[in-house]
Amino acid sequence: xxxxxxxxxxxxxxxxxxxxxxxxxxxxxxxxxxxxxxxxxxxxxxxxxxxxxxxxxxxxxxxxxxxxxxxxxxxxxxxxxxxxxxxxxxxxxxxxxxxxxxxxxxxxxxxxxxxxxxxxxxxxxxxxxxxxxxxxxxxxxxxxxxxxxxxxxxxxxxxxxxxxxxxxxxxxxxxxxxxxxxxxxxxxxxxxxxxxxxxxxxxxxxxxxxxxxxxxxxxxxxxxxxxxxxxxxxxxxxxxxxxxxxxxxxxxxxxxxxxxxxxxxxxxxxxxxxxxxxxxxxxxxxxxxxxxxxxxxxxxxxxxxxxxxxxxxxxxxxxxxxxxxxxxxxxxxxxxxxxxxxxxxxxxxxxxxxxxxxxxxxxxxxxxxxxxxxxxxxxxxxxxxxxxxxxxxxxxxxxxxxxxxxxxxxxxxxxxxxxxxxxxxxxxxxxxxxxxxxxxxxxxxxxxxxxxxxxxxxxxxxxxxxxxxxxxxxxxxxxxxxxxxxxxxxxxxxxxxxxxxxxxxxxxxxxxxxxxxxxxxxxxxxxxxxxxxxxxxxxxxxxxxxxxxxxxxxxxxxxxxxxxxxxxxxxxxxxxxxxxxxxxxxxxxxxxxxxxxxxxxxxxxxxxxxxxxxxxxxxxxxxxxxxxxxxxxxxxxxxxxxxxxxxxxxxxxxxxxxxxxxxxxxxxxxxxxxxxxxxxxxxxxxxxxxxxxxxxxxxxxxxxxxxxxxxxxxxxxxxxxxxxxxxxxxxxxxxxxxxxxxxxxxxxxxxxxxxxxxxxxxxxxxxxxxxxxxxxxxxxxxxxxxxxxxxxxxxxxxxxxxxxxxxxxxxxxxxxxxxxxxxxxxxxxxxxxxxxxxxxxxxxxxxxxxxxxxxxxxxxxxxxxxxxxxxxxxxxxxxxxxxxxxxxxxxxxxxxxxxxxxxxxxxxxxxxxxxxxxxxxxxxxxxxxxxxxxxxxxxxxxxxxxxxxxxxxxxxxxxxxxxxxxx
Length: 967
What we know:
This protein is mostly helical. It folds into 2 domains: 171-343 and 350-429 and 445-557, no CATH class; 578-744 and 792-949, no CATH class. It is built from 31 helices and 8 strands. The strands form 4 sheets. A two-stranded antiparallel ribbon has the order 1-2. α11 packs across α14 (401-424), α22 packs antiparallel against α23 and α24 packs antiparallel against α25 (782-827). It is extended, with a radius of gyration of 40 Å.
């Protein structure tokens, strides 16, 4: 019950649940309000349906619903009175009979409260709506406001240079971006974090040891310790990692062009403030003011908060990289047996169970695709595994963590880089963003109608996915392990800026040396490793004990060739390949009846003799000889001439499918353009075929041979043209409307759900009044989940809408990444020969298991295989894209299952309404194709008549002249 109450409060009163907006840099801390903007269309349409709802909806809409609800609520209120009377009567009897207030079955607390509260919710107001209905409408309007906030957040991100879906950057461009400055900064950050965590853990261990000694009245914390030692003994070791916040530093110094933050970065009032910078410094340049000026000057749609986010983008990116690397540093330190003694507690702590002094479990090394460790950067260095020098098997890392942190930096910076790129190009300044202000004003309800605009703004940016930041200044970041070791003198004395740290360790430098060894390997190698550099990836891999140090891991991890974006450069290729395998046809000898003849006493089979001689010996031999000489020649000639129209058709199919093979183009737009191409060609082909027929007839002798071949291939072309027109009509006229239709039908589902909620509201109040049931809501408890769905449905539709656009790209990339592997079985390798003639033995045992991916299917099956491969690819593409947009209705229907709610069906039902327009468009396409065929037949008939008259005039001109004269 408590969980339900908490869920209701969180859902219905989100302003109380979320106090401040801290999502963006430079936020003023203002509270979030879910009140919809004044121009929100959905509130207007709600007013059209429900009219005035006290304090929630206003306007000049019809009050017919309120009038009807006034009567309906009075009837329900009467039922409520009956339930109250029933409750009073039964509770009195139960009290008298069982000697307990209201009896044992009914709660003496909740039943009176529910009866009173439920009846009050049923009282109609002047507008006709009861209090429960007014509350439900308030929830609905708050849900509208929440959806508007989600929609505005998406538009704001797009407005400042973001995209809906972004192809992954080339990993090598990511790691080498800004001349390696970003990766150099990341390396310094990770080393500094390991240093900070090492100091934090060892200081905590030392401090706890001193406290244990103090309990025995001994140790440096007793008997009048120095001020420095007293500060250490009385102040717990703080969190070193969380003391560094890049965003906070730049927020506090927004006008500085060069920024820096020491590691760690404690406040001046902390006893640990003197340690600031002992593990290094993160340095970076603020985003250049001249670029900010260019953006503000050329892109007028940006507001102040969006400009502030652009200014802070580099700091936000660095902070994200810092958070990513902090997890790696934590694992490294926790894996060190000396810095984390608990890691060996209760287990085998012998030397043989550890990889090295600084690593219990090895970090791993990069591997080639051949299964051997990488020695230097190579395109085949694609995996990660255990170092062969140890018997340890499972590596601690997977080798992608460091590059992942750098990629996160680049990913956060990409919107700002895109924004500046667009601001520098006059043709794309504001035109792709003109719709944003209007879309925000109209609210979430009209989101579906802006699909083309969203596709346009996404297409203008996605091609820039390989941009990297420049002049970041991160290469000036540093992490020098000698800084902390220099505080220790050789004879136990302390010196320098960090001498107080030396005093805390009682002059023992074993801890700081061990930390330095974890970073650079100085305690496990003859000489420590140098900090990695990233001007180019040309270093050698680190193997052995050095591979499980911070610098060794960074060096090795930067060599792994990550896959980048699958499906971008692997779109399947289609090629018409006429691979003809002739199965020779031979007449086989026949057996004949005896045809017995008897001459005197001599009997012989005369019929069999003549049959064998004339048929088996003479006819079969001559016929098979002729077939062996002529059959392949005739077939080759016929198929060669047939290949001309087939190759032409293949080029059209290939050109059409090339639209949907462009991975950076919005799939819906690509399908629409492909459909336009198919429709135009299919309708123009009739004219081309007519001209070919006329030309072939007019050319002497040539036409006699060619025209029958054209007539032979015509039914095949017509069948494929019908398919082309059908696909074209669907993709050109239905697919572009699909996102809008599904979203619009989804809004209809929401309106239906709102109407249902308003009708059910007094019934829910009646259920609360009923004495049966448990808790605060009684019989109305299920209404909480349903009302939560009504509240969240608009916001989930927006999330599903944006996610569907991203998913449509991703599923196409998935298809592209794997389709080629399968299609080669049917059509063979597209790079192979276009023509292939061979002869088959016809042995079924050899053909049944044949798999030849160089030639694919042969004979006519090979010709059909080209077109059906494209058809399968296109249909997979269309299906994947159309199913992606069902997310718009799927999420609102299904999400509440995760907390026990029943799945809704209204969204799925409305999404099926789009199938009816699709059917009508497909039927129209089929009818158009049939009409085009009829036009072709009529034009061909007229053309043939004209050709015959022309031929007749050429062959006997005199007769025609006389006939004309006679007329």
